Amino acid sequence: MSSHIDFYFDIISAYSYIAHKKIQKIKKHQKVIFNYKPILLGGLHNLAGISAPAFNKFKMKNMQSDCELVSKKNNISFKWNLKFPINSLSIMRGYLFVEESQKEDYLNIFFDAYWKDNLDLSSEKEISKLLENLKIDSKIFFDKIKQQSIKDTLKKFTNDAFEKEVFGAPTFIINNKIFWGQDRLEYALEELN
How many domains does the chain have? Predict the structure, then answer.
């Protein structure tokens, strides 16, 4: 039996943001280990032959209202980003670059910036401002995320997710069982217990 839950996410996913906020609340009251597994959602969709909801006007409209509904019910500050969707490549590679001790703060700042503060994270200028809050030199950051090892690691995480039959974000895996969607977090917790 597994002692942790793998959490596959992408900053571009509003439901990943909601799941992350739920996880933060859970960790305040329970000793649960979540292994954060960054993926590139667009790349995963391509591997799985899936068309993202962002490119279907009916799904997009429903997703927006659903995220607002779920966030309100769970007391999570949420604002649909007017720049959705963006390419999250730099941010997701950045998560792999930052020190382990900075990863949680990094995610909190970038998730909030995109899904609470409505910032345009396709802008290097906006990303640089957020990196200042983490005391990360933006020049070093943008140089390092272009390194082949970082590129390969994100690609590997995405390919590994696909091989495990992950097809969207967020996804939780425990005991080789897949739980897809922020609303399946409680089922993953039940599996853990």
Answer: 1
